[in-house]
What does this fold into?
Amino acid sequence: MFRNYIKIAWRNISKNKGFSAINVISLAIGLSASFVIGLMVYYDFTFDKFHKDGDLIYRVTTVYNSPEGEDYNYGVSVPLIAEVKQKLTGIQQSTAFFTAEPSKVMNAGFSKAFNNPERVIYADPDFFGFLNYEWLAGNAISAIDAPNKVVLTENRAKKYFPNKSYNEILGETLVYDDSVAVAVTGIVANFKDRTDFTFEEIISLDTGKQSYMQDQITDDNWNSTSSSTQLFVKLNDKNARSKVQRQLDVFAKSNESENAVKYNEHRHFYLQALSELHFGGNYGVFDFTDYNANKTVLTSLIWIAAFLLILGCINFINLNTAQATQRAKEIGIRKTLGSSKKQLIFQFLWETFLLTLFAAFLSILLAAGLIKVFADFLPEGLHFGLFADPFIIGFGMLLLVIIAVLAGFYPAMVLSSFKPVSVLKNRIFITNSHLSLRKGLIVFQFIIAQVFIISTVAVGKQIHFLMEKDMGFKTEAITYIRTPWMDQSLQKREVFIQKLKAIPQIENISLGGSPPASFNTHATEVVYLNGKTEVRTDLELLYGDEAYLNLYDIELLAGRKLRNDTIHEYVINDACRKVLGFESPAEAIGKTLGQGKDAVPIVGVMEDFNQRSLKTQIQPMAFVGDWSRKRYSQFNTIHMQLNQQGSKNWPETIAKAETAWQTVYPESDFKMEFIDQTIAKFYQTESSMTKLLNWATGLSVLISCLGLLGLVIYTTERRVKEIGIRKVLGASLAQLNLLLCKDFIVLVLVAFIVAAPIAYYGLHNWLQDYAYKTRLNWWIFAASGFGIVALALIIMSVKTLSTASKIPVKSLRTE
Amino acid sequence: MITIIDLEKYYATEEVRTIALNKLSFKVREGEFVAIMGPSGCGKSTLLNILGLLDDPDGGSFIFNDIEVAGFNERKRAELRKHNIGFVFQSFNLIDELTVFENVELPLIYTGVKAAERKERVDAVLEKMGIMHRRKHFPQQLSGGQQQRVAVARAVVNNPKLILADEPTGNLDSSNGNEVMDLLTELNEAGTTIIMVTHSEHDAKYSHRIIRMLDGQKVTENILADYKSSVAP
It folds into this structure.
């Protein structure tokens, strides 16, 4: 019986090649998207599943509640560590570590230092008892129990000492930042499974007290929190969570600062489960983790996959119910010969499954392509090889069965319920209910396609708007180089600047802090007393020398620039002026912010410009000099205006700058950034999203149009005789085309009417995230609607015109 | 074997109710060859569908092998049908996507016969019908006569007690038609009951008894002279 089904399925598939192709392609598109997205979901949900007692491991994080809202930090204040270790009950273990970014590491045997070794931590002696590493050399107990010890992973050990055995590496000395010497006391295997604990060099915590981290590691202030301070606990059992949380609440409460109480800002310590760690959410994973899985993104992706799959299934349902009459005779005969309805349903489901299986094979090829297209969107570890994972294979099979049932069940019901008597007498009528269901499904398809199209246009418009909008300062042909942050020497910076000045293509140079718009923020809180009330505001600080404002073309609205590089004066921006309550820029000049020895006069007001992505409003800001130069200079970045006309000479200029860099900072890597590229980076999420949306739109439109084409082919072929008669009676080609397309165009229009408000609502909500938004003009909707109607018409006309232009006598004769 | 009493069937549209069978009664005994004749629209085909358990009567009684089957649901009818009844149609009704062998095999599949036995039985019946050499061909590749022989082969492969034939020679030329009628006669002589609807007086002569119908009623019933002796009234 089974073989019989396969045979007839195969013959039916090959008999209707066109329809089968449409079915298979539509399903394959949906499936490939599902496979890739399923892979992403699986990938992200299988992080750190291998740890012993993983369900008892929690990270302690910090949540701030203030009248302005919630704020999060995935670190804790350092004194909490001792408190947890000494007083907290209900936990079996805890470990604390500090993520660090040494700028270089050296060994007597190296010819050159390794710059910026990544994923370095200073960990307390409990660390290796907490996470179970496989030891290749050394042991968990004594590896980091004293100062000046380091444990390397096998990857790092092989990188630093390529020709030595693990035991030979033990005892080697590594020197971090020319000052901290440590002996290699152990080598552990890197975790084989997916993990966020990707540390490569684990230095004993006591060592950190000699490093640049010393201030932080020994910080005893309950009110300073750094995200590099990591604290993990392992509960006694699941039920201990609330008990532990209560104790943490007490620690938080009893160490609140006066100011925090005064301004109603409360801090909580929150237990973040290990399973939540990978989904950074409000937090993040670790300082050096660049990929944050995002549940919202994953959810949207799952929706996209589901939509594409549903579109594919709809094509299947539509084409198969439309073709039902062709199968009717077979069904009648089978029933007469004793087939039960159940057997027929099974037969058709099996046929669907076979097609789905084809689609699946095709989709695996497509998926490989999709993974390439979205390479920059996907985490590094996600590759095609994951398809071999038994879980993924199982999921794939389950999905195929679900799809086959979803797509095949309704057509199977329709077909199998034909009455043999009427079928054999050629008296089958496709009832209206099937027809209206098909129409309903087409409308549904086009609603989805239409929503995608409108969204693509509108999101594209918003992103274009963001990219093109004037930031308020000059962004053309400006580059900047950050000098090595470990090297505080101003003389060296000056030497470097002098060398740069000798390069003719560089027109203007300034020494300062970050560029006007960047990912970095320095902020302070200032108070202004205007006699009656006290105005309190956060104030972002922008550091730069006298050339800075000129270079970035930021103009003054009133007052003057700073008198010199270190004088305590503010040039505030206009936004700050408004927050402080000055009617005009001129009114602000000469007023003082802060009191006593902290009092700083406002000497100028500069025009507003955007400091970050246009998602956010312009914040109060002040342009300042290098106040803390004696302790730590903020002037660490060199900004350059290149010759705008000579952009073809820039590579040469950059090469010259690099040569200059090598003579001043021979040990550091040269990295020059263009400010417009930095700004473009603000919108990385948006550009990935656009790419994704473009694909989703393209694919959904493709599937929907394929389905439409299939139905048009079918209905047109059934009306060949009618077309012939109409032609004989004098109908023109255009009239015939209209006749054939009319019904479908109406459906597409209905879809537009439903889709437009849905899209409007969704986009309106999305735009709320942006402080600066483009308008949702009527033409976005009109153009999208017109576009899809035109596309549908073109696709249909391919078939209808060729049918309508046939010589009528032929079609009539064949009847 | 078959007893129908006051059998009724209506076709109703919104305005008109057409009576297809009007209190029709007759009996068919095991081993008989009965021809049903009458003009178009007299209810012959409706009757055949009901006799073939493809359709349900609206009134009256239909006793098949001592069982009252009027009012049986689709599933029960299918069960009874596949074990007892074979069909031969005017338009052959072979499945185009299946080969000759596979078409004939179909009833055996539905009655759950094992593959090896199926092959044996199908080959035997194809041999008997003289179409063994065509077993791998598709219906469209055969002549009308050959197609009808395949259809007959399919009808008998299950050894049904009853064969219902709906104008089996309607689409055939006379020589092919005679061949098919000879086949049916042979089957009847081997013990199979045959009820045949036909327009052809020539074909009707092959039967034992002719029931003539008009407007859903039996008008006459004549037992053909040659068989009077063998079949008691």
In short: The CA atoms of residues 495 and 664 of chain A lie 7 Å apart.
